[in-house]
Amino acid sequence: MKKSQTLPQTPESDYEGTQRQSIVIPSKHITIANSFEKKEHSWFITSHVPTDLTIQVQDVTFNVHKYPLISKCGYIGRLEFQPSISNFGYDLKLESFPAGSETFEIILKFCYGLPMDLNPNNIAPLRCASEFLEMTEDLQDGNLISKTEAFLTFVVLSSWKDTITVLKSCETLSPWAENLQIVRRCCNSIAWKTSRVNIVGDTDCQEGWWFNEVATFRIDHFMRIITAIKAKSTRPEVIGKCIMHYAERWLTGMHVEFEGLRGYGFGKNDLQFSVLSRCKEDGGYVHSKEQKAIIESLVSVLPPQNEAVSCKFLLRMLKMAMLYSASPALISELEKRVGMMLEDANVNDLLIPSCNNADQGKLVKIVEYFLMHEQQGQQQKTARINVSKLLDNYLAEIAEDPNLSITKFQILAELLPENARTCDDGLYRAIDTYLKTHPSLPEHNRRRLCRIMNCDKLSLDACMHAAQNDRLPMRTIVQVNVQVLFSEQVKMRTAMQEKESQSGNNSEQEGNHSSTDAEIKNLKAELEDVKIKMAELQSDYSELQQEYERIGSKQRNVSGWSLGWRKIKNSFHAKVEGNETGEGQQRPNPAGRRPPSRRRSSMS
């Protein structure tokens, strides 16, 4: 391809109307043609001089004169023409012409000196075609290359709308538009204008209008625009919003959301079918290779800052990357970024479709990345607490899946270190949901699950619920009953300290000091009594455990456990009620509460 010459300096007066969208170039030469006539797929010159050249562009044939084209087109002047078989002229076929027959018609008008219209829709094809035909200044001053360059530089690039139009037309002109720097100049112009918009104002309305315009381009031109915008030091959140807007427009599955297990239980083929079905309803057609290319391109230009895009968007992109089998390196990059922002996620976002067995470990990797960043001091102190609550809610959601293995549940439950949870109520709720969904789970697996949680970290309400929960193994029930009694001890201790404080600070009630001492002694005695009864309860449990190990029959197993549990339960309730009765004869309940065995839980 021959390089065009430097443009001559053009007086500014020639381009005073730079905001106009077209320029009509009048005839400056005597022409041998009056007009063009079209008959089916052929164009004819209306002239008194017979034509001597037939040029075929695509499926259209032009019957023209050789001299007007040779005088302005260096490419045609260098060709050796083949004599025509059908007439007395020559035949020429332009097989690699970069534009269509409509563009060649405009070039013919220019060569014949007829008026031609330059506008944003045809300027890029004309610029590429004139370069192909070598319409340089060497042949004639003011040839088409210089005219199209001037219009592109002074008219198009000064207007946002015209620049968008020209760049859109370049999508069918590769590689000519790239080599002539038309794409680069348009992208730089767009980037400069967007940077000016963000400097002048930063409202969503002002940002939104150019998001929509930029999102209309195909992915390679969009990437060029984003690269140019980054070079202008545009804020990362602005770039991130633009990328998210583009993804929502071009990635069909980005809007497919399934609440709860409906999304989690979807396999890859099921999810692909759902995405394709929705796309078909919208009248479109999805090419998986194109979708994969878009995903990989968008992830590659994401700004590294956390504030650039939301965690929800990253998780959606992760789902799409898995759906369209993106590269492992890209999926790993998304997992790392999600791990850095995991505390901002919600349960539905984490329900990644189980495409295959390997995909079930995605959340494990994400949490590992989160913990790694936390160890490096890149996470806030509250992040671990928020993530532990998120993970517990996630476990409670997937626990309703009847196909979820106990091993996977346990792995997910033990992802966080023990000190990450300040309260195990959420973990208990997830375990209870799993036991409810899997009623036939063996006793040893029930104990295996309950060992995950720390009964000492359960709230009083959770302990009361667990104490009456027949789905839990016996050992766990005894432990939570111990926790309930311990809570009562703490309340007694608190009441004692309050009364001692009141008696010490109130000198006017010295006369009642003896009665206060008696109450304190009674509380201490009751506390010791609770300890003794607790030891008896633990002894009952040990005897019951030994009895269970001796029983081999399943029927006797059930009856033995039922009898033993009634024994412990009645013993526990009777002892606590005995405390209440004795206490009621001496003093009112210091905590003002009913006994644990009679409270109704609010967690069921």
TrEMBL record:
Coiled coil: none annotated. Pfam families: BTB, NPH3. Pathway: Protein modification; protein ubiquitination. Residues 493-517, 574-604 are annotated as: Disordered. Keywords: Ubl conjugation pathway. Residues 208-487 form the NPH3 domain. PROSITE patterns: BTB (PS50097), NPH3 (PS51649). Residues 502-515 have a biased composition (Polar residues). Residues 51-120 form the BTB domain. Gene3D superfamilies: Potassium Channel Kv1.1, Chain A. Residues 595-604 have a biased composition (Basic residues). Belongs to the NPH3 family. This is BTB/POZ domain-containing protein DOT3.
